[in-house]
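Try this one yourself first.
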């Protein structure tokens, strides 16, 4: 086998290995994006079963991974139960949610113990103080935690949220660049910025700073008529997000990695439907 054919074969095997959930459909991101979800979405459905049983059900629904919260779901005291359930079911704990500035190092350590590779962080925005002070303090805190993140092999990923801090893609990009570490990047929420911006434009500006995705829908007409948060009460693929344009922007940056559903909780049939909708909007 010549070198070129060997490299092509290796690349093909790597793509297959990326996603253990097989499908007859070969989409644009099949083998390049793996589906995860927030544990809060499954808690209600899983209330009468063990973690391992719930994880197996989530695998059957079509998910490859799960993201628990550091703010109530998982602790150092129950981490072994989570890792055991992951091993038994094959559902990967790809990352954690809820890192806070004052406990970043502890959150990184717990994420490492769980076998994840990222911790989602929401930056605080205390509006009683000048914004430049908040910016400077946040940059300094992220710089200070970067060496520990690198040591543990855990990405610290900042999410774009509704607290009105870093609500422009250019602000987020500048913030990440000012921190200046490959271990502090972005957990890009495709739905959150629709209140102020356009999803594919965020993807274009952030580029490879986007290390993981959150997937939700947003309907601008519903938000305008019923209230801003009502915009999220829309099934994936039925709102205002231009998913083909989002896919094109992700393709331009050669995105490969995890995409986590972050929508309301529901029963197993509902969770399976969300997984199928993820397949459609992301063309998996």
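Now uncover the answer:
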């Amino acid at each position: 086998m010549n070198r070129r054919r060997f490299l092509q074969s290796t690349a093909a095997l790597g793509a297959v290995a990326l996603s253990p959930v097989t499908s007859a459909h070969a989409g644009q991101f099949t083998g390049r994006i793996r589906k995860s979800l927030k544990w809060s979405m499954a808690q209600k459905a899983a209330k009468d079963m063990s973690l391992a049983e719930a994880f197996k059900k989530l695998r059957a629904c079509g998910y490859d991974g799960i993201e628990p919260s550091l703010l109530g779901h998982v602790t150092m005291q129950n981490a072994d139960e989570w890792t055991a359930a992951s091993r038994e079911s094959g559902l990967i704990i790809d990352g954690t949610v809820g890192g806070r500035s004052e406990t970043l190092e502890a959150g990184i350590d717990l994420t490492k113990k769980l076998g994840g590779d990222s911790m989602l962080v929401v930056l605080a925005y205390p509006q009683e103080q000048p914004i430049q002070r908040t910016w400077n303090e946040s940059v300094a805190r992220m710089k200070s935690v970067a060496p520990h993140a690198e040591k543990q092999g855990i990405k610290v990923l900042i999410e774009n949220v509704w607290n009105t801090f870093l609500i422009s893609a250019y602000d987020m990009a500048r913030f990440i660049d000012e921190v200046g570490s490959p271990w502090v990047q972005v957990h890009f929420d495709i739905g959150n910025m629709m209140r102020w911006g356009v999803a594919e434009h965020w993807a274009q500006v952030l580029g490879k700073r986007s290390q993981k995705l959150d997937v939700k829908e947003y309907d601008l007409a519903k938000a305008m008529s019923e209230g801003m948060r009502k915009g999220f009460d829309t099934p994936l693929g039925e709102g205002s997000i231009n998913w083909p344009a989002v896919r094109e922007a992700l393709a331009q940056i050669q995105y490969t990695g995890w995409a986590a559903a972050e929508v309301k909780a529901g029963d197993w049939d509902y969770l399976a439907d969300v997984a199928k909708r993820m397949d459609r909007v992301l063309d998996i």
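Discussion: DSSP finds ten helices and nine strands in the chain. Residues 20 and 190 are 24 Å apart (CA to CA).
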